[in-house]
Write a structure and sequence with these properties.
The chain is mainly β. The chain has no helices and 11 strands. The strands form 2 sheets. Strands 2, 4, 5, 6, 9, 10 and 11 form a 7-stranded mixed sheet that branches.
Length: 123
C-alpha cells in the first residue's frame, strides 16, 4: 500500500504561481510512475501531467504545457507540480496519483491516490 498526501494549494491571483507537493510513504516510491489530475466543480477529473518512475519522461495536458512543470525527488519520496502563469480555469482540486499505468492520461490506470488539495485562481 502507498499513502499520498498533497499540500501547497491555496488562493492565488491570475498570473501567479504555486508549487504543489505530494509526499509518499509505504512501498517504494521510486518504483512508481506518478501523475497529477484535477477536478473542477461540476466537471470530470482531468489529466494534468505525469512522470515516469525515473523522471526521464514527462507528459502534459495541452492546456498546461509550457506553464506547469512536473518533477520528482525520489530521495525525498516527493512529487512536485510547479504551476506558473495561473489562470482562473486552473481552479480545481488537484490530486496526485501513483501506479504503473499503461496509459498515463487515464485516471483508472493509477492505483493510489491522495486526498486532494484545493487551488483557486482569482481574476
Amino acid at each position: 500500500q502507498v499513502q499520498l498526501v498533497e499540500s501547497g494549494g491555496g488562493l492565488v491571483q491570475a498570473g501567479g504561481s504555486l508549487r504543489l507537493s505530494c509526499a509518499a510513504s509505504g512501498r517504494t516510491f521510486s518504483s512508481y510512475a506518478m501523475g497529477w489530475f484535477r477536478q473542477a466543480p461540476g466537471k470530470e477529473r482531468d489529466f494534468v501531467a505525469a512522470i515516469s518512475w525515473s523522471g526521464s519522461n514527462t507528459y502534459y495536458a495541452g492546456s498546461v504545457k509550457g506553464r506547469f512543470t512536473i518533477s520528482r525527488d525520489n530521495a525525498k519520496n516527493t512529487l512536485y507540480l510547479q504551476m506558473n502563469s495561473l489562470k482562473p480555469d486552473d481552479t480545481a482540486v488537484y490530486y496526485c496519483a501513483a501506479g504503473s499505468p499503461r496509459d498515463y492520461l487515464h485516471d483508472y490506470e493509477y492505483g493510489y491516490w491522495g486526498q486532494g488539495t484545493q487551488v483557486t485562481v482569482s481574476s
